Each structure stands twice: as structure tokens, then as C-alpha cells.
């Protein structure tokens, strides 16, 4: 099993996802500002993994604050939270983890040193819980996948795997659970332009775990569906609004439209920490725009002539009505019932 964020004695070891699949290396992070850079530059990426990394980033920050005064400590911890918040705007798990750490700090009585210790334990808990959550998402997802054919051909976009979480994955968690239950024929992985998380990361992960994987370019998905090669689509999410509209990697929306056109079920797999009940619908989800060089060059080679303009949104929003079900660790919900289910049963509602 792959663990992208690991605590090692006094520091965090992150799998450097920018170097995969060429080389498997870990980057050691000892300071909160280095953690902010690691998140921004996508050494660590994927909504839940960003949340776990930010939780450790908050602890590293707490360790850097040189005061015994609680009020001063909390003020400076809030500033560290703000620095981490400014790294990536779309994945709500980042904000969720920072708020959870700040809440714990405020509510823990005792000395600054005692608060620091609890913050480290809380970061470990966020990491451990996400792994358990992903395993549950995988199993809940398996329950709602189509009953026929016996062996399924699934298609995914981007990387919502172990690398994007504490381990196991959300969309790839469903794929893993299908593989374990002997219900997986093959996974189609969209290459996922412009950063190629599908081609580089999903493929690498699948090969590590013996999951049969076929890589296609993003523009091939419609053709594959028309040829009857795909039984269901499973993707992850960066933020889900109260009405079920879902932000995920750019290209997810067009994939959902194409799946609808071919009557192929489209599943979103995500932990409850990805649900943002404060946003009524997807139009309120902030969409990150990244550097145009992600489009005009591959590696160090420039592909596009100088002089063109570029637009590089990293995410898009899939409207709820294109989503068959949102699979969480507490069950699968029709997107329009998600909010209602949480309102009816407070014990399953997302909370820090
Ligand atoms: O820009 P990235 O690589 O962080 O985007 C990742 C995705 O869009 C994933 O699908 C999403 O975060 C879910 S990860 C379980």
C-alpha cells in the first residue's frame, strides 16, 4: 500500500508526486512554509492528501511558534493556517483540516506545549481516519456498481487513488474493492491533460497493485463509450456543494456529459470532508487557475507557438443531475438527497 504522507519521528515524508513515475522519492518537510510550498507545487496533491498534509503543516507551524502565551500562540497559529489556506483554493479538505486543527487548539485547555502535543495527535488522527474512510468508500462503491456484467470495465479521470489520499484512494478505492471482489475486468485511465495525473500517477499506482489498466487520451472517452467498452465511470471530488454539484479535475464535466449521452452510470467517490454544505451550488466553488506553462509545454519542451493566450482552469464543476450517486464512507446518495440525508441524521453529517 502507498502512503503519500507519513510522519517520521519529527518530520513529514511526502512522496514527491512531481517525480513519478520516473522516480520514487520522498521529500522531508520540517517547516510549515515548506509544507505550503509542497502543496502549492503539487509534490502532494489530491483533495484528501492535501488535507492530511495541511494538518501536519499546522503542527509543524505550532512547533515553530516560540511563546508560552496561549493568546499569542493561537494568533500565530491562525496566521500559519492562513498561509496554508492560500496554497490551493478548490479542494475543501484543505480548509476543513486547517479549521479542525485550529478548533482543537482553541478548545484544548492547558499549556502551549500540551496544545502542541494534541495537535500532533490530531494530525495523526486525520491521516488514520482518511485511510479508514477510503476503505469504507471502496466497499460502499462496490455495493452500487452495476450488477452486470460480472466483470466491470471502469473508467476514471485524474488520480483519486492512494496517492491522492492517506492511502487506498476514493475512486481508485472503489476500483481496488472491485478488484478484490473479483469484479474488475479493467480500468481505463484518462491521461488527464494538462498535468497528466492519469497517465503518470493512476497508471503507476495500478501497475504497483496489479490492476489491469489501459490509458487513453481524454478525447477518446466518448469513442470508447460508444464502442461499448465502459460499464461505469468513477471519479473523485475536490468539493461537493450542498446540491450535489461537484468540482473535480478539469475534464470531469465533459466526461459526465458523455457518460449521460451513452447511458453509462457516473459515480463520484469522496469522503464527507469533501462536502461543503456552506455552498448552495457549484457556481460558488472557487476554481483554481494554474500557470499557462502547464498547457504550452511538456517537460521542458514548448509545444505552442509564442504569441497565443492561454486559459488553464484546474477544475470544473459537474452538475448534480449528471451524477448517478455520490459514494461516501457512510453510504451512496443520489446527489439531490445528500443534503437531506445529512439533515435527517446528524450523526452522518460532515463535521470537523
Ligand atoms: O490537481 P490535483 O491533482 O490535486 O487534482 C486532483 C483531483 O482532481 C482528484 O480527482 C480529487 O482531488 C480527488 S482525490 C481523492
Shape category: globular
Structural class: alpha/beta
N- and C-termini, Cα separation? 26 Å
Q: Strand portion, in percent? A: 15-25%
Strand order of the largest sheet: 6-5-4-7-10-15-16
Overall mean pLDDT stands at: 97
CATH superfamily (homologous) name of the largest domain: Translation initiation factor eif-2b, domain 2
Helix tally equals 11
- Tell me, what is the CATH class of the largest domain? Alpha Beta
Outline the biggest β-sheet. 7 strands, mixed
What name is given to the CATH topology of the largest domain? Answer: Rossmann fold
CATH architectural category of the largest domain: 3-Layer(aba) Sandwich
Segments where pLDDT lies below 50 for 5+ residues? none
Cofactors and ligands: 5-S-methyl-1-O-phosphono-5-thio-D-ribulose
Describe this protein's structure.
The chain has 352 residues and is of the alpha/beta class. The chain folds into two domains: 5-133, Four Helix Bundle (Hemerythrin (Met), subunit A); 142-344, 3-Layer(aba) Sandwich (Rossmann fold), CATH 3.40.50.10470. Helix content is 40%, strand content 17%. It is built from eleven helices and 16 strands. It has helices at 32-40, 47-64, 70-85, 92-107, 112-144, 171-180, 197-208, 221-226, 252-261, 293-296, 338-344, and strands spanning 5-8, 11-15, 26-29, 152-156, 184-190, 213-216, 232-235, 239-241, 246-249, 266-269, 275-276, 297-298, 301-302, 315-318, 325-328, 331-333. Strands 6-5-4-7-10-15-16 form a seven-stranded mixed beta sheet, sandwiched between helices. Strands 11-8-9-14 form a four-stranded mixed beta sheet, with helices on one face. A hairpin with a 2-residue loop joins strand 15 (325-328) and strand 16. The longest helix has 33 residues, at 112-144. The two termini are 26 Å apart. The model has no long low-confidence stretch (mean pLDDT 97). Bound molecules: 5-S-methyl-1-O-phosphono-5-thio-D-ribulose (MRU). 5-S-methyl-1-O-phosphono-5-thio-D-ribulose (MRU) binds at residues 45-48, 91, 158, 160, 164-165, 170, 197, 236-238, 248-249, 314.
